[in-house]
Design goal:
mainly alpha
């Protein structure tokens, strides 16, 4: 299901989509770019999945004073929701970028490995 995009917004985003598709079509991973990207992704993951929820737990307890039963449950649910959202977002964005790259390169997404017994 696709969300309807207003025509004015579609016109403004069209040049960015063209540039993004050109980038996805021509991008090739080198060892250096793959290592740098994986380090940045690991840093982003640690910040979003560990540091921010930990800060929230301390902040809600010490600054906001959330010490009643239901506020503790809300605090924990918010931290769990934050972690779930960002972990899911990382995988969904990777999947969508892979599908868009296959689309702009004209590959059908064949996943059969080469070699081996057939």
């Amino acid at each position: 299901m696709r969300l309807p995009i207003p025509e004015g917004l579609r016109r403004r985003l069209a040049p960015m989509a063209v540039r993004g598709n050109a980038f996805l079509r021509t991008w090739e991973w080198t060892w250096t770019s793959a290592v740098v990207f994986s380090l940045l992704l690991a840093f982003f993951g640690i910040v979003m999945l560990a540091i921010v929820p930990s800060f929230w737990l301390y902040f809600s307890d010490q600054v906001l004073g959330w010490r009643t039963f239901w506020l503790l449950k809300l605090r924990d649910a918010m931290a769990a929701g934050w972690i779930t959202f960002w972990l899911t977002a990382i995988f969904v964005v990777a999947y969508l970028l892979q599908k868009q790259r296959q689309k702009v390169r004209g590959t059908g997404g064949e996943t059969r490995p080469a070699g081996g017994y057939r």
